[in-house]
Design brief:
22 strands; 5-stranded parallel beta sheet; 33% helix; binds flavin-adenine dinucleotide; FAD/NAD(P)-binding domain; globular; alpha+beta; 8-stranded mixed beta sheet
Length: 465
Amino acid sequence: MNARRAVVIGAGPAGLLAAAALSPAVDEVVVLDRDELPEGPEHRTGVPQSRHAHLLMPGGMDAMEELLPRAGLRAELLAAGARETALSRDMVALTPVGWFRRWRHRSHVTITSSRPLLEWVVRRAVLRCGENVRIRRARVTGLRGSARRVTGVRLADPDGGPTQDLDADWVVEAGGRGTRLLTWLDTIGVHGVRERGVDSGLANATRVYRVPDGARDWPMTLIQADPWSGRPGRSAMIVPIEHGRWMVSLGGMRGSEPPKDPEGFVDYALGLPSPLVGRLIRAAEPLGPVHVSRSTSNSRRYLEDAPVWPEGFVVLGDAAATFNPIYGQGMSVAAHGALALARALREDGIGTPGLARRVQRAVGRAADGAWTMAVSTDVLYPGVEGGRATPGDRMAAAYSQRLTRAATGSYAAAAALWDVTTLRTPPSRLFRPDALLHSLAGPPLPALAGPPLTAAEQAFLSGIG
Ligand SMILES: Cc1cc2nc3c(=O)[nH]c(=O)nc-3n(C[C@H](O)[C@H](O)[C@H](O)COP(=O)(O)OP(=O)(O)OC[C@H]3O[C@@H](n4cnc5c(N)ncnc54)[C@H](O)[C@@H]3O)c2cc1C
């Protein structure tokens, strides 16, 4: 029998994790990326979003560890400088209905680091664990094959010569948000894929700071956007990352976009319902310019419902579904999609007829929860394009507001909420009897008058004026 080759388009999180999933099932995995990948944790042009804060949710981390069981991924990330934040204990967050408390429990541990560091650690782990995986620089320009089966990819010649072909028994498209997937599918005869886009018009502005002396262990700090006020959402977060730095991201929806100039950046943060983030960054040394991203719409291609689907072809990560980044879900959904691929390959074997279609359906299901959460919230903001709040959305919004209020004074209610927002469990978790009871009963503890800071944190804050 001939050696089996899988080709993966894109060496972002989805592509790397797809390579990990495919490695045991084939003789060779070739990951293609148009970028020259850096030796270390550095930015690259193919991933412009890497200038912005990237939280790796517990649900995503669990999926990555299952995909790379021998990699010691968490330890590798921490050794490289990534930070762990237990949302229950190490986070200071103002929701639209009050401050979350900080509890003694250490749960819902989220990894924070720069995106280049995260990607670099995952890349090293995939290459170390999958000895048959190699990465090659090449830009893919199309698919080969037919609507029945994909048989490879077309590559642009780096020197401007004719295109080349690369044969494959299995192809994964993980080319990210800018994918040309639907055009590629059209050329092999797969038509009629339904698409949906919901765009809140979020502009995300990010600047990196050196953590000020005395604030080394300052907790992750969030001022959340308010979807229930009828006004454009505005938010801010301070995310601790490697090498004693804070990555500070401000988010403003259409009509309330944060400015790019350094003074306006601080003023915007000071003008939020709590000035906490603004006060902290006013006292910190900036380490670079403000970067702005507007590639923030939710967009989904319902590939799982396509009238026909070719054998040997799967689409993962942002190429299949992208989310408003304010919810921090994209990489975790990509990891869940790759895990669906790994499980199907393990259970059914790569040659099983109809496998690609089954995997694509599982990838769609893996995106459903995050999609519902992001879109049903975004449609509540004024000026959103591509969707309107239905009566069902408004009812869900009223319920989620009640549960969030309960979560400000109850660990059990907060845990139910975080189980879902960190992609550990599907949104149906919010309708279990315990969560329903919490939302009806409201918070058992009174609302906090200000941020829940330790004595040392309070002293630092007073010290900076
Ligand atoms: C401002 C912002 C903040 C975000 N914050 C978070 C967060 O906090 N948490 C989170 O989980 N997610 C976050 N995301 C989303 C996250 O960046 C994506 O979900 C994630 O990168 C998706 O991974 P991917 O591998 O599908 O795509 P990408 O990471 O975009 O990787 C795609 C790769 O494909 C390559 N490529 C593209 N086309 C071709 C081609 N034709 N040939 C060869 N190679 C190609 C590119 O060079 C790139 O390396 C954020 C996004 C934005 C915009």
